[in-house]
Amino acid sequence: MDIDSLYRIFLQSTGVTTDSRRCPAGSLFFALRGDTFDGNAFAAKALEAGCTHAVVDNPACLPGNDGRYILVDDCLGALQALARHHRRALGTRIIGITGTNGKTTTKELMAAVLSTTFCLHYTQGNLNNHIGVPLTLLGLRPEHQLAVVEMGASHPGDIRELVGIAEPDFGLITNVGKAHLEGFGSFEGVRRTKGELFDYLRARGGATVFVHDDNEWLKDMAHGLEQVRYGSREGLFVSGRMTQNSPYLGFEWKGEGDSAPHTVQTRLIGEYNLPNALAAAAVGRFFGVAATDIDRALEGYVPRNSRSQLVKTAENTLIVDAYNANPTSMMAAIENFRKMDAPGKMFVLGDMRELGADSLAEHQRIVDHLEACGLTDVVLVGSQFGATRHHCPTYADAPALIAAWEAQPPVGKTILIKGSNGIHLQSVAEALCARPTPQP
To answer: How many other C-beta atoms lie within 10 A of the C-beta of residue 26?
Structure first.
């Protein structure tokens, strides 16, 4: 089926689904394949559950002359082509965002700011890959004035593929750091891949990018592009500085030409979130959002999904940052926590995943830094930290730590819980939250 015919069917649908367990009435099912499943096998179930059509790429699953089945060469390719076609048909202005760390938080802050003034569409959750980006684009509606599309990458060429689908008009790279080294091969591989967003906009011509002025890598990557800069230096389009970090981030910012700074008290943990907040302020300012609305949006944003969340339990205060971890974000979290004014500081650090051949060296670098700083109240979790040279209590996994703390839990501590999602340190936080209030 050609893309125009498929698009006409999409326009008559209530939306797109790739999960046969979630089939809203009137939706269009795409039978995607994975390492352990073939969506073609669930096409009939999707139609029974409420879908009007099923897009399949296996002729063997077609039950005779049933017009509800749409046969294509490749379901994923058809989904991506449909998303690009829809994006072009609507012409919505799109801001593409990527980066090693902070892209989801920055996206959420940008969305909070822009939503005060515009009818906005933006990436939900972490739908930022080769499937999530098309699904995000297919959620665009004619009433949307702007869209923010997050793009993730774990291999060279990933961002190039995603910008080819989303075709953004503006771009922002939060930073470049050491992450997914197993897929990228090196830091240079990370830098090149994240830079594919700017490469696309440069080739497109006439595009504007938002650049963190404090980051020399990003300034170099943005050459030849119209730049809107934000950072700590006076005189930028948006400049700002931290005013508080105990534990929530407070800061003040000024737009270019402002006579007085704007003061913001966030519910974000960590000085490392200052560039994310300034990026949101810069994007908002660029699109004409009033300063008072920017301030209100940034102050009202509450982080979710174990991203620098402050949680008070019956016995301790937790800073839960267990959604993701890499050497760059781990070091930033440690340094921020080390400087924070808080009682009984304790570190619970889990392995950083997907670092390939550099994994042991990067974990050793972290524990060497902890010891060089004289930090002693540290607990390590995972096989990679377990293989390093250190003097810290170490546990094979999260259940082992939870079991050990059943008998002797921490009390009166402020605990940083940081690690890759696959180490499941969120379960440690949940176990601490579940403990009953001590009886007098």
So the answer is: 13
β-strand pairing of 378-381 with 394-395: parallel
Angle at alpha carbon of residue 8, lines to 6 and 12, rounded to 5°: 115
Contact 253, 239 (CB under 8 A): yes
Give the C-alpha separation, 206 to 355, whole Å. 37
pLDDT along the chain (440 residues), means of 10: 96 96 96 92 96 95 89 97 98 96 94 98 94 98 98 93 98 89 82 95 95 96 96 97 93 95 95 96 98 98 82 94 92 93 95 94 97 95 97 97 95 96 96 81
CA dist 418 and 426 (Å) reads 9
Rounded Cα distance, 417 and 410, in Å = 13
Spacing of C-alpha 83 from chain mean position: 21
CB contact burial 152-166 (16+ within 10 A = b; e otherwise)? bbeeeebbbbbbebb
DSSP code per residue over 300-336: H----TTSSEEEE-SS-EEEEE-S---HHHHHHHHHH
Which tokens sit at 126? 């972490």
Amino acid at 251: F
Per the DSSP assignment, residues forming a β-bridge with 381 are: 350, 395
DSSP state of 352: P
d(CA 324, CA 337): 17
- Rounded distance, CA 371 to CA 362, Å? 15
3-state secondary structure at position 34 = coil
Of residues 192, 175, 201, 430, the one with CA closest to residue 318 = 430
d(CA 313, CA 311): 6
Residue written as token pair 């808080």: 342
Which phi and psi (to 5°) does residue 125 adopt?
60, -130
The residues, ordered by sequence, that sit 6+ positions from 29 with a Cβ below 8 Å of its Cβ are: 16, 17, 18, 20, 23, 39, 43, 46, 47, 51, 53, 54, 55
Region of 317 please: left (phi>0), alpha (psi -120 to 50) or beta. beta
Tens of pLDDT, residues 162-210: 999 999 999 999 999 877 777 787 888 889 999 999 999 999 998 999 9
**What does residue 56 show for φ and ψ, rounded to 5 degrees?**
-125, 160
In angstroms, the CA 146 to CA 166 distance is 13
Q: pLDDT, tens digit, for every residue of 368-390?
A: 999 999 999 999 999 999 999 99
